[in-house]
Write a structure and sequence with these properties.
The protein is an alpha/beta fold and about 325 residues long. α1 packs across α11 and α2 crosses α11. Helix content is about 35%, strand content about 15%. It has a five-stranded parallel beta sheet. It has two domains: about 150 residues, Aspartate/ornithine carbamoyltransferase (Rossmann fold, 3-Layer(aba) Sandwich), CATH 3.40.50.1370; about 130 residues, Aspartate/ornithine carbamoyltransferase (Rossmann fold, 3-Layer(aba) Sandwich). The structure holds N-carbamoyl-L-aspartate. The site of N-carbamoyl-L-aspartate has 10 residues, from α2 and α6. N-carbamoyl-L-aspartate (NCD) binds next to α2 and α6.
């Protein structure tokens, strides 16, 4: 693997807006190497031996937490999970004190998920270890955006001019939508969004996307469809009439999928509400890359931990 002049050593990864296109390319290229390690019989290299990573999750997670944990372990780091529902947070400890507490244990990275926008940036200000944002409220989820880019690239499509991307559903509360809109528009792709008007931020067009009031118009001719989970836990009540009506008017089903390009990629960050934003059939069809996304999530998170904690200086350890 070629050495790169760019280094992400010591960098906090808070959102995709603060990474350059070259830095994103380095992460994706490193993830491809990491994927080879994942495919080995013995998936363990010593690149992060002696480093420790703390997963600090204030919100539920299956994919993101587990994949950061496996990513660290495959690279030889010690990984500890803190689930705040069973930590001192329930005794009233504030965010600053929790961050300073884990920092006192000399960890090298804090991977943090929090319901409040800006929480990871705050942690990065307070703490010396590298902070990786694993989702802050409706703001950003950079590792998800990177694994989506990786999955699209691996499938042979290049996010850039001429590619039509559709993002469907709960744009208002989705950090995945905001993350992908930032990356995809900057790379020059055409980004279309559709969903109930109550779930579309009024100023979203300023980000360079086209808003549609019919889901079919966003899907027509699309190369990639990113279906979002309805964020029931973040929403105030009454933003759409019923789940049945939502599925009927906005859900991605086979009939609607047929409007897209034949080789369209269907993405979903998971967890899916099957039968609501995505039909059972579409979730399992050949165009669905949802399980590839999960697998690539481990490789991308290995790349992030490796690049931020070593500066990418020990490529030889990957061989
Ligand atoms: C996403 C999240 O938490 O932002 N899930 C994930 O990380 N795979 C999307 C979601 O919860 O809808």
């Amino acid at each position: 693997m070629a050495k790169s002049d760019i280094s992400l050593g010591g960098r906090d990864i808070l959102d995709l807006g603060s990474l350059s296109n070259e830095e994103i390319a380095l992460i994706l290229q490193t993830a491809a190497e990491m994927k080879k390690i994942m495919k080995r019989d013995i998936k363990k290299v010593p690149s992060l031996r002696g480093k420790s990573v703390i997963n600090l999750f204030y919100e539920p997670s299956t994919r993101t937490r587990t994949s950061f944990e496996l990513a660290g372990k495959y690279l030889g780091a010690d990984v500890v999970n803190i689930t705040t529902s069973s930590s001192s947070v329930v005794k009233g400890e504030c965010l600053r004190d929790t961050i300073l507490t884990v920092q006192s244990m000399n960890c090298d990275a804090i991977v943090m998920r929090h319901p409040i926008e800006g929480a990871a940036a705050y942690a990065a200000k307070v703490a010396k270890p590298v902070v990786i944002n694993a989702g802050d409220g409706a703001h950003a989820h950079p590792s998800q955006g990177l694994l989506d880019l990786y999955t699209i690239k691996e499938a042979g499509k290049k996010v850039g001019p001429g590619l039509k991307m559709a993002i469907l559903g709960d744009i208002l509360y989705s950090r995945v939508a905001r993350t992908n809109i930032v990356a995809w528009t900057r790379l020059g792709a055409e980004v279309h969004v559709a969903g109930p008007m109550t779930l579309i931020p009024h100023d979203i067009e300023a980000l360079g996307v086209k808003v549609h009031s019919r889901v079919e118009d966003a899907i027509e001719g699309a190369d990639v469809i990113d279906v979002l989970r309805i964020q029931l836990e973040r929403q105030k009540k009454g933003l759409f009439p019923t789940t049945r009506e939502y599925a009927r008017v906005w859900g991605l089903n086979e009939k609607r999928l047929a409007l897209a390009k034949k080789d369209v990629l269907v993405l979903h960050p998971g967890p899916m509400n099957r039968g609501l934003e995505i039909s059972w059939e579409v979730g399992y069809c050949d165009n669905a890359y949802i399980r590839d996304q999960v697998q690539n999530g481990v490789a991308v998170r290995m790349a992030l931990l490796f690049l931020t904690l070593t500066g990418g200086k020990h490529f030889e350890n990957l061989d």
